Amino acid sequence: QVQLVESGGGLVQPGGSLRLSCAASGNILSINDMAWHRQAPGKERELVASISSNGRINYADSVKGRFAISRDNAKNTVNLHMDSLKPEDTAVYYCKMVVTTTNLLQIQSWGKGTLCTVSS
Q: 32 vs 22, 65, 97, CA distance in Å?
């Protein structure tokens, strides 16, 4: 079993910054892909950024140049630094990881989400 816990959400003014973190725990052998998704009220969940085990990074067009994703394999964590935040960035942000368990099963795990509100 694998658990993901996000932290760092909150209220920020437009133009401000937030740093999100997600830590994985449980029966982990290795972590393949790490990603952040978000879901605004009344809208479907969308991919924000992802980073693979070989270092391949992808960003949604709407956040390119403003957000930065990074990972720390020793700590089983993924981070998302968000700069120049806009009201349209307001959403619940979810951490997702593709994990190889100690039982050699590949599973997809999700965190419960952390709310980020960008408003004056």
A: 15, 24, 7
